[in-house]
C-alpha cells in the first residue's frame, strides 16, 4: 500500500507515517523542512520538501513518490497553521499564513490527490481539521473559521469524488499532546481539556480511515462538549468562548 502524508515530518503526521511504516507500507511525507526526518532510517520512507500552498510544489512531491507506476492508496493532509486572535492581536503575516495553509493548502492537497486517484477509480483522502471548527459564531477566531472551512471543503470533495470510487474522511481532533502544542503553550498543558496522547490519536485516525468514515470527532468528551456549546445562543457562545480564550492566556476579562 502506498500512502502520502502532507505535513508528515512532525506531530500527528509523522506519528501516522511511523504507524504505516511499521505495517510495511510505502510512505511518502512532505514538509517545508524535511531535514527534521532522516528518511534513511526507514526502508520504505521517502521525504520531500514541499509547500502545500504551492500547487506545483506539492504536486511534484506526490509525482516523485508515485514514479514507476505506483498507485496512491491513501493521501492524508496533516498540515495546519495556528495563531490565536481572540484574546490578543495577530500580525498580518500570521493571518495570511493561516488562510493560505489551512484553506488554500487544503484545496491544493485535495486537487493533487484527486488527480492521482481519479484514473485508479479508487483511493482514500483524509484531512485533519479541528474540533473548534464545529462551532459557528460571529466572533470566533480566524483559526476556528479556517478550520470550519476545512470541514466544509472536506464535505464538498467527499460528495464530488464519491462517483469516482474515492472516499474522504475529515478528522476533527481536540487537543493532542504534540511537541508543537507544548511549544505554543510553554510546555504547560494544564488548561487543555480532554488531552489525547499521540498514540491514541493515531489509532483513532487510522481506524476512521480503514472504516472509511465521513467525519470523526475525538475525544468523545470534547465532541459532546462542543456540540452542547453549539446549541447556545450566539451572544452567549461569543461571551463564553472569549472568556475561555482570555483564561487560557492568563488575562483577566
TrEMBL record:
Belongs to the short-chain dehydrogenases/reductases (SDR) family. This is 3-oxoacyl-ACP reductase. It holds the Pfam family adh_short. Signal peptide: none annotated. It comes from the Bacteria. Keywords: Membrane, NADP, Oxidoreductase, Transmembrane, Transmembrane helix. The keyword Repressor does not apply. InterPro entries: NAD(P)-bd_dom_sf, SDR_fam. The chain crosses the membrane at residues 224-242. It comes from Chryseobacterium vrystaatense. The lineage of its organism: Bacteria, Pseudomonadati, Bacteroidota, Flavobacteriia, Flavobacteriales. The keyword NADP applies.
